Amino acid sequence: MDGVVTRPDGTFILIGVPTTLTTIGLIAEISGTNAAYGAISNVKIRPGGHTDAGIIVLKPAPPDKIQVMDYGGILSGLDAIRLIWIEPGTFLMGSPLSDPQRLDNEIQHSVQLTQGFWLGETEVTNAQWHAVMGTNPSDIGEGGSFPVVQVSWTACMEFCARLTEVERSAGRLPANLVYTLPTEAQWEYACRERGQSKTLFHFGNVLNSDQANVARLVGKTTFVGSYSPNALGFYDMHGNVREWCRDVYDHDLIPSGTVVDPLGPGQGVLRVTRGGSWDYTTQYCRSSSRDYESFYVSSNNLGFRLSLQAR
Which helix (H) or strand (E) holds 92? Predict the structure, then answer.
């Protein structure tokens, strides 16, 4: 694979057409070899891929890890939103009865996700929000690399719609893909490393101040990526800011059997939030912990993580 330039952060830029390029739907897949990283196969890249113009940014990873893409366009350079591809699969969502911190809205059940999706490596930052929306809503952690806060569910969906429109108009986004919020099931699937993590947190059963920004130990948000990621490469899945999900919240939902691609109830004022925040105790930052807010509410502990997926 010719034309590979390694960047200081460990990612590399592929210049020119790779050894093979096939299209699966409208997500491309490349494979080939380079001296620095050896064989590369089944690597998902952004639609369009710049394969002929010549720039694909990939983060090298072992074959069993998910590759990262930098989705450029309106967000480029340091402000690029980095998305990780997650394969579909089935996992146990919720908490078992043996969990001493379990709450009554965490009934454990099997969930099947039939479609893969992209999810943000980090929470959306102030700089990324400003690049798309032209505003600065945050009242704490005002630096560009801090997660945007004081954004309602409605405002986050507007961000997704605007980014989708801009990228599609520029010819960088196919008609069958949209930016949106992840569903609650998608969020937990990513947090649980495609279901491989079955502990209270993706780190294990204990969460401390070296692993996440929780329990008012810092007293405000920290810049995204301040702590170690989970095995799939996602940062701040526990703490920092709560993250809006697309679903309407349903406290009393009692699943029966395996639920396929759940979206929550069709109507309601409340929306799901996940992950806990900088001012939440660790109990409310567990992988299974479910929270909610009215769709119009904004708060200094509430932000979001971007997803790219099929309509």
Answer: strand 89-93
For residue 20, what pLDDT is reported?
36
What are the pLDDT digits (tens) for 115-151? Answer: 988 899 999 999 999 989 999 999 776 788 999 999 9
**How far, in Å, CA of 308 to CA of 71, rounded?**
10
DSSP letter (8 states) at residue 146:
S
Q: Contact at 8 Å (CB) between 227 and 294?
A: no
* CA pair distance 144, 127, nearest whole angstrom: 4
Instruction: Supply the CATH classification number for the domain 85-310.
Output: 3.90.1580.10
Query: What is the distance between the alpha carbons of residues 70 and 77, in angstroms, rounded to a whole number?
Result: 9
The answer to whether 272 and 291 are in contact (CB under 8 A) is yes
Beta strand 109-113 with 259-260: parallel, antiparallel or unpaired? parallel
Show me where the domains of the chain are located.
Answer: 1-65, 85-310
Find out whether 67 and 59 touch, Cβ atoms under 8 Å. Answer: yes
Q: What are the distances in angstroms from CA 1 to CA 6, 40, 105, 115, 174?
A: 13, 9, 50, 30, 27
pLDDT tens for each residue of 152-181: 999 999 999 999 998 888 877 788 889 999
pTM (2 d.p.): 0.79
Is pLDDT of 70 > 70? Answer: no
Which CB contacts under 8 angstroms, 24+ apart, belong to 157-165? Answer: 157/181, 158/133, 159/124, 159/129, 159/132, 159/133, 159/304, 160/306, 162/132, 162/133, 163/74, 163/75, 163/132, 163/306
- pLDDT given at position 271: 98
Name 285's Cβ contacts closer than 8 Å, sequence gap at least 6. 201, 207, 212, 214, 238, 239, 275, 276, 277
Q: Output the pLDDT for position 175.
A: 84
Percent of the chain with pLDDT over 70: 74
pLDDT: which is higher, 30 or 262: 262
Calpha distance 224→116 (Å, rounded): 24
